[in-house]
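Researcher: Let's walk through a ligand-bound prediction step by step. First, I give you the protein sequence. Second, the SMILES string for adenosine-5'-triphosphate. Third, you return the three-dimensional complex as structure tokens. Ready?
Model: Ready.
Researcher: Here are steps one and two:
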Amino acid sequence: MLKCRDLRKIYQKKCVVDNLSFSVKEGEVFALLGSNGAGKTTTIKMILELIPKDGGTVKRAHGVQVGYSPETPYFHPFLTGREVLGFYGGLQGISKEDLRREIPELLKRAGLEESNTKVKHYSKGMLQRLALAQALLGDPKLLILDEPTAGLDAMGRLEMMHTIQALKKEGKTILINSHILNDIERVCDRGIIMKKGRLIYEWENGKSGKSLEEIFVEQIGGIE
Ligand SMILES: Nc1ncnc2c1ncn2[C@@H]1O[C@H](COP(=O)(O)OP(=O)(O)OP(=O)(O)O)[C@@H](O)[C@H]1O
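Model: Step three, the predicted complex:
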């Protein structure tokens, strides 16, 4: 579904993503792991072509659309969730007719269907759920979720994890970047641990007898 080969990014002469290669198979939930500054968000931005690469290739399966939920979602504060989805759907070129069908479904899935509240009054949980709904516009096969549980309380995180599990069951392929190893272990099939831009460990859920946290600490050498 997604193949990254020898990805490289240099910022101010510093190599922040260094010859990074990994593949995500169809139907998988795949994790990008690593300490702060390891290069995860930069990798995601290169996959999405939001920033230029300094080397390497990104290949997506033919015709596959991508939905993206950013690390810190920002929407126009004076719009309601419904209006935000209408705006982004329009930017994507989705027809008005399709949006009339899609938006209520997405709002329902995000638990925001009753809400005429403007985004400026949204809680963090509501914002993250709206960001996911936005990523699902147009029913993309591949989802890239950058820290989808950032700032959420325990219930919010649980709900987000259930949603991700449901999306996997529906056949979505999901690339997820998160620091919350328990969450990752709950929903992800495989992943990679990055350190200083490099791949240092390929993780497969349940393969070794160790928890992801144990593996992470072993590999990273404690939280940096
Ligand atoms: N626009 C930029 N200009 C210069 N340096 C940058 C830029 N964006 C990121 N970096 C640097 O690149 C490195 C990797 O950053 P990145 O945001 O990809 O890490 P991350 O693994 O996503 O971290 P976090 O978990 O904290 O979000 C860091 O050292 C960061 O300071």
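Researcher: And what stands out?
Model: The radius of gyration is 18 Å. The first strand starts at residue 2 and ends at 11.
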